[in-house]
Amino acid sequence: MMLAGTNEKNYVAYCGAELTIEWYYTGRGKSEALDYFKDLPLSRKKKVAYMFESLAQLGKIFNKEKFRNEGDQIYAIKASEDRFLCFFFDGAKVIVTNAYAKKSAKMPPREKQKALKAKQDYIKRVKGGIYYE
């Protein structure tokens, strides 16, 4: 199984029965999470794809080891050693903001800060009608 989002500015990572998973793009057209995903070996891509599919189809991942609320309405999708940070948005969307490889028990504070900054930027640009081109 392969995720959508391998072409430039393809927002949708996975569209399911309950939710649509989207990659976040900066105002300059970059998606840190998508770039991270593209660089993963196939075996790890498959694990991430499975987690995205589960979330999109069911609307929730019930295993707290795989999906966790990190506070401030930021969630971590945990696939193997890879962490994809995201938030829920109107219209049954989950926006994946950034990703990193787990190296310690705690999430690096800068990763959560990146996710919060991306969330603020996304909401501002969507409300201003300038996010989706």
CATH class: Alpha Beta
Number of helices: 3
Question: Whole-number average pLDDT?
Answer: 93
The Cα radius of gyration reads: 14 Å
Strand residue content: 15-25%
Q: Per CATH, what is the topology? A: YaeB-like fold
Count of domain modules: 1
Structural class: alpha+beta
Architecture per CATH nomenclature, i.e. the level-2 architecture: 2-Layer Sandwich
Run of helices and strands: EEHHEEEEH
Strand order of the largest sheet: 1-2-6-5-4-3
Distance between the amino and carboxyl termini: 28 Å
Please bin the fraction of helical residues.
Answer: 25-40%
What is the 3D form? globular
Tally of DSSP β-strands: 6
Relevant CATH superfamily: RelE-like
Main β-sheet, in a few words? Answer: 6 strands, mixed
| Low-pLDDT segments | none
Fold topology:
Blueprint: E1 12-15, E2 20-23, H1 32-39, H2 42-58, E3 67-69, E4 75-79, E5 82-89, E6 93-101, H3 109-127
Parallel strand pairs: 2-6
Antiparallel strand pairs: 1-2, 3-4, 4-5, 5-6
